[in-house]
Design a protein that fits this description.
202 residues, six-stranded parallel β-sheet, Rossmann fold, 16% strand, globular, alpha/beta
Length: 202
């Protein structure tokens, strides 16, 4: 069996807040992914995908990928075309953003049997938000990888001063945190993406 060696990676910017910080790490991690061979990388900004608050009578699990709202259909097409996801998430009040949860909740089959990795920022590097997001990902039949990227305070403060896209060197300390955390992150994500792509096509 032969399959395309190219992987589609979607980087999801998980906040629409005015004056948000998330643009900086989202553009950085998308840029790091784009440097790797065999990847088609797209940054999905939830500002570009304004979804209604989820209130449909049926669960997406039962809708078989058919949605009445064109905005949901457009979002579903983007998510369905991915082989793996990278979610850039803030931590608000010990958790993740409402707009990100809403984007997850609108779909079901499109997410399934694909790996997902997280880049977090905020209190404790977004660790508590990511811990909760892993549970959501499992319920949506995704494969959350063990490695995650948590922005330490010094990187966060330095990146705050950066334009968009930021200077990648601002994030260089992440490559020297008990090893190269960025390389470990992509090793886990891409190994899983390749293995699961083969399994889905089999």
């Amino acid at each position: 069996m032969s399959i395309s060696t190219n992987l589609s990676i979607k980087v999801i910017l998980g906040t629409t807040r005015e004056g948000r910080f998330g643009d900086k790490p989202a553009h950085w991690i998308a840029g790091e992914a784009a440097k790797l061979p065999g990847l088609d990388v797209e940054l999905l900004d939830l500002r570009d995908h304004p979804l209604p608050f989820f209130d449909r009578a049926l669960s997406p699990f039962r809708e078989n990928g058919v949605y009445a709202d064109p905005a949901v259909t457009r979002w579903a097409a983007k998510i369905a075309s991915a082989d793996a996801y990278i979610v850039v998430s803030p931590e608000y009040n010990h958790g993740y953003s409402a707009v990100l949860k809403n984007a997850f909740d609108h779909l079901f089959p499109e997410w399934g049997r694909k790996p997902i990795g997280f880049v977090g920022y905020g209190n404790v590097g977004g660790a508590r938000a990511i811990e909760q997001l892993r549970l959501v990902a499992i319920e949506l039949h995704m494969w959350p990888i063990r490695s995650a990227l948590h922005l330490p305070l010094d990187v966060y403060l330095a990146a705050m001063k950066e334009p968009i896209p930021p200077n990648p060197q601002v994030f260089a300390p992440l490559r020297n945190q008990f090893g190269d955390r960025v390389a470990m992150f992509f090793d886990d994500l891409l190994w899983s993406a390749r293995a699961l792509k083969v399994a889905r096509l089999g």
